[in-house]
Amino acid sequence: MYAKVMVDVAHSNVDRLFTYEVPNDLAVTAGQRVLIPFGGNNRSIEGFVLELSENAPENIGTIKRIVRAMEPYPALT
């Protein structure tokens, strides 16, 4: 499964959604706050899952994996 994540970074260069793979052992829903590796140095930041999909987007390079959900429930509704 794949998630489109809005990152919690205030910069115009990242004003878009990023695709992350959801590990098989992790259950996430839209609205959940997650910890993700971000940028070239893979620093850990928080983001929000806005969409979920069974299929990876076409024409996308390397897809990083969500590290963990911050809570077991959606922070956004």
CATH C-level class: Alpha Beta
Quickly count the helices.
0
Number of E-type strands: 6
Distance between the termini: 21 Å
Mean pLDDT: 91
Count of discrete structural domains:
1
The SSE order reads EEEEEE
Coarse shape: globular
If you consult CATH, what is the topology? GIY-YIG endonuclease
Largest sheet: 6 strands, mixed
Second rung of CATH, namely the architecture:
3-Layer(aba) Sandwich
Q: State the strand order across the main sheet.
A: 5-2-1-4-3-6
The helix content is: under 10%
Work out the radius of gyration: 12 Å
CATH superfamily: PriA, 3(prime) DNA-binding domain
Low-confidence stretches: none
Protein structure class: mainly beta
- Percent of sequence in beta strands: 35-45%
Account of the protein in words:
0% of the residues lie in helices and 42% in strands. It has a six-stranded mixed beta sheet, with no helix packed on it. It has one domain (2-69): PriA, 3(prime) DNA-binding domain (GIY-YIG endonuclease, 3-Layer(aba) Sandwich), CATH 3.40.1440. The chain is globular, with a radius of gyration of 12 Å. It has no helices and six strands. With 77 residues, it is mostly beta strands. It has strands spanning 2-7, 17-21, 33-38, 43-53, 64-65, 68-69. The mean pLDDT is 91.
